[in-house]
Amino acid sequence: MSVFAYRQGELHAEALPLSRLAAEVGTPFFCYSHAALASAYDEFSAAVAGLPSMICYALKANSNLAVIATFAQRGAGADVVSEGELRQALAAGVPAQKIIFSGVGKTAAEMKFALETGIRQINVESLPELRLLDQVARGLGRKAIVALRINPDVDARTHAKISTGKAENKFGIELGHVQAAYQEASGLAGIDVRGLALHIGSQLTDLEPYRAAFRRVAEITAELRGVGLTVDRLDLGGGIGIAYRGETPPAIADYVRVVRETVGSLKTELAFEPGRWLVGNAGILVSRVLFVKPGASRDFVIIDAAMNDLIRPALYDAYHAILPVKEAASDAPVKRFDVVGPICESGDRFAEQRPLPPLQDGDLVAICQAGAYSAVMASGYNSRLAAPEILVHGHAFDIVRARPDYQSLLARDQIPDWLGAGSG
Ligand code: LLP
Questions:
Q1: How far is it, in rounded angstroms, from Cα 119 to Cα 192?
Q2: How large is the C-alpha radius of gyration of the chain?
Q3: Cα separation of 218 and 216, whole Å?
Q4: Where in the sequence numbering do the catalytic residues fall?
Q5: 275 is in an annotated binding site
Q6: Phi, psi dihedrals of residue 275, rounded to the nearest 5°
Q7: Ligand 1: does its nearest atom lie under 6 Å from the Cβ of 101?
């Protein structure tokens, strides 16, 4: 059962009615459920229990420290892609030994910080990156523990902007060059190359691309071992999809079966980097209807959340279910609306011609599946203040990221003295 459910005619987050939360924190706001986060993690963890593996939560999906801490407490590691995320993982209690640093463009400063912190592994995506990391590590008198990310050239059959495992994508080392790169890595004094990594894309709803990619990684592992190289770690990335609109994403148990069938016999340590699957369903964006505006060709519901809070519909044409917080009567008439935000762009639209029950000015709505790639992708466009984030825990809630104030908005910039403005 979803933790976001109607009770006594109103949508709740766990035991709390959303109207009460809206009255206390104002709208728009992101609302996360601790129970949903914990149960997703526990389900993933139970499914991979028999494998020699580590779950490294991909922070990029939602890097609120309270979210990371929820997973860290349950034993999770972290997959990070910047020094900022690395610092967040550490601050939330993830031990350095459980942190993997991924990403196609790390700077020397980030490499240095990661090496000094003593993280578990750095995933390297190109030869120039490998050579720079070798230099940085030698400069520190250390050896960087490395996995080489390969590009398995499989089609993940997901949205083009979040597909990462095809030859034309910027990610990973091409299949034909992996052996030479691994050879080179194993000869570098600052590098301890331990294995391979891959991540073929996000929001996958089909297991076949995984099967194809994992088979390739198994073949390459055998080849590398065949020439005397050591491969004892495989990082299988993330990518498992969730249901936004009736999709049927694979069950984790079935995903794990594919893992066992393809790479299970290689006797390597495994790492998983789920992001969306752990957090996507655990969050919603709650917003208030500012105006219902009838139009000549369509009717608009203008809400106080906008594309700066949740950009997925504008960026990927992503579908997010929208629910009225007050439960509609079962016989309520349904009309089609465009649900839009206040930003001065036509792309600031959460839904087009969406059937909805009657809504009035002042009503609350919940935009669903806003736990992943939502708050983290927010911007300050139109000088809108970032929506706060709250974490519900049974009958209680905490503000886990406060709404900034206008003072902090103005304090960000400096007017040089010679412009003389602002002095009145
Ligand atoms: N590992 C690596 C190396 C990744 O690049 C990603 C996501 C993950 C793990 C986690 O993938 P997940 O399990 O969350 O699918 N902003 C897009 C999604 C971008 C995903 C980028 N990489 C969206 O809103 O759909």
A1: 13
A2: 23
A3: 5
A4: 344
A5: yes
A6: -120, -80
A7: no
The pLDDT of residue 300 is 97
Q: Tell me, what amino acid is at 217?
A: V
The domain limits of the chain are: 4-31+280-411, 34-278
Q: pTM for this one? A: 0.97
- Residue 423, pLDDT > 70, answer no
What's the pLDDT score for residue 422? 59
Instruction: Please give the C-alpha separations between residue 38 and each of 90, 219, 251, 253, 373, in angstroms, as whole numbers.
Output: 19, 36, 17, 18, 18
Give the whole-angstrom CA distance, residue 199 versus residue 147. Answer: 13
373 lines ligand 1 (CB under 6 A): yes
Give the helix/strand (H/E) hosting 397: strand 396-401
pLDDT higher than 90, residue 167: no
Please give the Cα distance from 158 to 318 (Å, whole number).
12
- Which secondary-structure segment (H or E) carries 115? helix 108-117
Rounded Cα–Cα distance for residues 201 and 198 (Å): 9
Residue 89, pLDDT > 70, answer yes
61, 372 Cβ separation under 8 angstroms: yes
What is the pLDDT, as a whole number, of residue 162? 73
Is there a contact between 159 and 204 (Cβ–Cβ < 8 Å)?
no
* Domain at 4-31+280-411: CATH code: 2.40.37.10
Cα separation of 147 and 13, whole Å?
40
Q: What is the dihedral of CA 364, 369, 375, 380, to 10 degrees?
A: -60
Give the Å distances, CA to CA, from 189 to 137, 150, 228.
9, 22, 18
Q: What is the ipTM of this complex?
A: 0.99
Is the domain defined by 34-278 classed in CATH 3.20.20.10?
A: yes
**373 appears as a binding residue in the annotation:** yes
Q: What is the mean pLDDT of residues 401-413?
A: 98
Q: Assess contact for 324 and 356: CB atoms under 8 A.
A: yes
Helix, coil or strand: residue 376: helix
Separation CA 131–CA 32 (nearest Å): 42
Question: DSSP letter at 61?
Answer: G
Residue 33 near ligand 1, beta carbon < 6 Å? no
pLDDT score at 67: 99
Please tell me the predicted confidence (pLDDT) of residue 1.
55
Q: What distance in angstroms lies between residue 99's CA and the mean position of ligand 1's atoms? A: 16
Q: Is the preceding omega at residue 28 within 30 degrees of 0, hence cis? A: yes
Backbone angles phi, psi at 419, to 5 degrees: -80, -25
Rounded mean pLDDT of the chain? 96
pLDDT band per the 50, 70, 90 thresholds, residue 156: confident
